[in-house]
Automatic annotation (TrEMBL):
Membrane topology: Single-pass type I membrane protein
The keyword Calcium is annotated on this UniProt entry: yes
Species annotation: Steatornis caripensis
Keyword terms: Calcium, Cell adhesion, Cell membrane, Glycoprotein, Membrane, Repeat, Signal, Transmembrane, Transmembrane helix
Subcellular location: Cell membrane
SUPFAM superfamilies: Cadherin-like (SSF49313)
Domain of life: Eukaryota
UniProt protein name: Protocadherin gamma-C3
Entry keyword Transmembrane helix: yes
Gene: Pcdhgc5_0
GO cellular component terms given for this protein: plasma membrane
Length: 691
């Protein structure tokens, strides 16, 4: 048999459960005699039986939630054992729930993080409260404190569980309210009901819903060109009301900027400082417009743009430029003044006064600048040019601007003067005097005439030739004796000179250049033939045959200093080479006769004696004064006889000492005087011309 009892939980010890004797219909005394025992299926003895009364009592605290949890029905099973006879009775005690437990949230505080851009209707589950009671005593409902943004939705599960959800009814805005504080109450269905609360703190997470904002729509700055690298242009300031990465701003140059601008300016992505990192050149750009963007670090990123206008102030940093529009580096030396040599264009990339340019050339050069119009000049010749005086000019064109301080540029124009055949050749000497020894070798150089022509190249290539001099003997053709090298001017002998035939020769040497037309000049050359001792004296009287002697007869009574005879000799040479001296080289009686040194007279020096020989042989030597001297000899035989002296052969013999000069000697003297006079006159004329 099975007996069932129902008792609420949490009864005190000794509380009545049931009367087993009554319910079994057994006498109490019999139960006591039957040795009644209570056996429990659990580890704990929640019940006991009073054998004297047959009453089952609670012996320990019974917590239904601990025993059965959320089971809707909770039973404790007992076994009663009776002896004599043995009988077993099963007793089932149902433990009824009482509202002894309020709903409990897992935590007194709940934190939620919700993005501010969460869509309306979004649900945010809250961890439910737990109520170990069952039935109506368990959790029945939730209540949410009043607020503008959230409603409460309680979601029921098939197992009876209730889960609260916050439903977003109004959009969140972190920038207006970053935190929301709500109270969620859980209430059971007991009587009286029990409840518990949890505080819900909702942190509105920032969504990147705000773009950065610059404090100005545009920025302006002014810099001088050539500002040093690192110069601060402007410091940008942008703010973003978002927080965290969404409000963390990075600055950068927009991709709309050109690559050239990016090389000139750089921006610090953290501070927004724009600084110079390249060369600022006013001449390349007077204004720079920089597009800048500020981006936050949200996802997705939001950005804002602004422009920075940088005005560049010009400084005088560019020297003027000189550009040759037209230029001829070669100029004919006969170009008249005013000839255009070059057309020059000048410019300065600076602006204002700093871009105005003035040009000039050195005043000591035969050139001048003419300003044709703004920025253009012509370089002209200002005087006559002479290549032979100055063949090459380096004309420095100086261009200066009006900046402070001024900048300038110097351009050198090399101008070479082209030669014109405007100069005739000039001999180094107006005339030449040449002394040539006779018997000169053929081909020997007598003189070198030299001329110079200040012109150049073909105009200075000289050619020499020999011309007959006016007033000379037509029979004396200089080209018969002489030749001249056409380029070196060396005058050479074609024949040896013979002083005895030609003592003097003059001719012109003409030089001509290679210009067109050719220019010429002449010089006079005087050739004086110098005598050489190349002729031995020749005895003119007395005449004697070859290898024979000439005989003279004198009386034995001839008294000294009687003239016996006179040796007359001539020398075809001149000067010292023709100065003759007579010498008695040998004689039969050296003391009987003498020979006059200069006149060649042979005289008796003492009276003849009977002991003297009747025939005397005399060897007379005639010698000139040349170097080395040349001589000739004649043998005379003087016979001493009673007959009178014979007439001198070829001349009149005079006994007296006062005989006149022979005709040939007179001719020689006159010739010597004439030659000396001509020489003196020539030397005088030469001296005057040199002076």
């Amino acid at each position: 048999a099975q007996i069932r009892y129902s008792i609420p939980e949490e009864l005190t010890r000794g509380a009545f459960v049931g009367n087993i004797a009554k319910d079994l219909g057994t006498d109490v005394a019999k139960l006591a005699a039957a040795n009644l025992q209570v056996l429990s299926d659990s580890d704990s003895q929640y019940f006991s039986v009073n054998v004297n009364t047959g009453v089952i009592m609670v012996s320990e605290r019974i917590d239904r939630e601990r025993l059965c949890g959320q089971n809707p029905r909770c039973f404790l099973h007992l076994k009663l054992a009776i002896e004599n006879p043995v009988e077993f009775y099963r007793i089932e005690v149902e433990i009824l729930d009482i509202n002894d437990n309020p709903p409990e949230f897992p935590s007194d505080e709940v934190s939620l993080r919700i993005y501010e851009l969460a869509s309306l209707g979004a649900r945010f589950p809250i961890q439910p409260a737990q109520d170990p009671d069952v039935g109506t005593n368990t959790l029945q409902t939730y209540h949410l404190s009043a607020n503008e943004n959230f409603n409460l939705n309680v979601k029921a599960r098939t197992d009876g569980g209730k889960f609260p959800e916050l439903v977003l009814e109004k959009a969140l805005d972190r920038e207006l309210r970053a935190f929301h504080h709500l109270v969620l109450t859980a209430e059971d269905g007991g009587s009286p009901p029990q409840s518990s609360k949890t505080r819900i703190t909702i942190q509105v997470l920032d969504a990147n819903d705000n773009h950065p904002v610059f404090d100005r729509p545009s920025y302006g700055a002014r810099l001088v060109e050539n500002s040093p690298l690192g110069t601060l242009v402007v410091k940008l300031n942008a703010t973003d009301v978002d927080e965290g990465p969404n409000g963390d701003i990075r600055y950068s140059l927009s991709s709309h900027n050109s690559a050239a601008l990016r090389q000139i300016f750089a921006i610090d992505e953290q501070t927004g400082e724009i600084r110079v990192q390249g060369n600022l050149d006013f001449e390349e750009a007077t204004v720079y417009e920089i597009e800048v963007e500020a981006k936050d670090m949200g996802s997705p990123t939001m950005e804002e743009h602004c422009s920075v206008v940088v005005e560049i102030t010009d400084v005088n940093d560019n020297a003027p430029e000189v550009i040759l529009t037209s230029f001829s580096s070669s100029l004919s030396e006969d170009a008249p003044p005013g000839t255009v040599v070059a057309v020059i264009h000048v410019r300065d990339r600076d602006s204002g006064e700093q871009g105005k340019v003035q040009c000039h050339v050195p005043p000591d050069l035969p050139f001048q600048l003419r300003k044709d119009y703004e920025h253009q000049y012509s370089l002209l010749t200002s005087a006559h040019l002479d290549r032979e005086r100055v063949a090459y000019y380096n004309v420095t064109v100086s261009a200066s601007d009006l900046g402070s301080p001024p900048l300038s540029r110097h351009t050198i124009l090399p101008i070479a003067l082209a030669d014109v055949n405007d100069n005739a050749p000039q001999f180094e000497q107006a005339s030449y005097e040449v002394l040539v020894a006779e018997n000169n070798p053929v081909g020997s150089v007598l003189v070198t005439v030299s001329a110079a022509d200040p012109d150049s190249e073909q105009n200075s290539r000289l050619s020499y030739s020999i011309l007959r001099a006016g007033g000379t003997d037509p029979g004396l053709d200089p080209t018969r004796y002489l030749s001249i090298h056409p380029t070196s001017g060396q005058v050479s002998a074609k024949l040896p000179f013979d002083y005895e035939q030609t003592t003097y020769l003059q001719f012109h040497v003409e030089v001509s250049d290679g210009g067109s037309p050719a220019l010429r000049n002449r010089t006079l050359v005087h050739v004086f033939v110098v005598d050489q001792n190349d002729n031995a004296p020749r005895v003119h009287f007395p005449r004697a045959g070859e290898d024979s002697a000439t005989q003279f007869r004198i009386s034995p009574s001839t008294a000294p200093p009687a003239l016996i005879t006179k040796v007359v000799a001539i020398d075809a040479d001149s000067g010292r080479n023709a100065w003759l001296s007579y010498h008695l080289a040998e004689a039969t009686d050296p003391g009987l006769f003498s020979v006059a040194l200069r006149s060649g007279e042979i005289r008796i020096t003492r009276a003849l004696q009977e002991t003297d020989a009747s025939a005397h042989e005399l060897l007379v030597v005639v010698r000139d004064a040349g170097e080395p001297p040349l001589s000739t000899a004649i043998t005379l035989v003087v016979l001493v006889e009673e007959r009178g002296p014979e007439a001198l052969q070829g001349s009149e013999a005079r006994a007296s000492d006062g005989g006149g000069l022979p005709t040939i000697t007179l001719y020689l003297i006159v010739s010597l005087v004439l030659i000396s006079t001509v020489s003196l006159v020539g030397l005088a004329v030469l001296g005057v011309r040199c002076l």
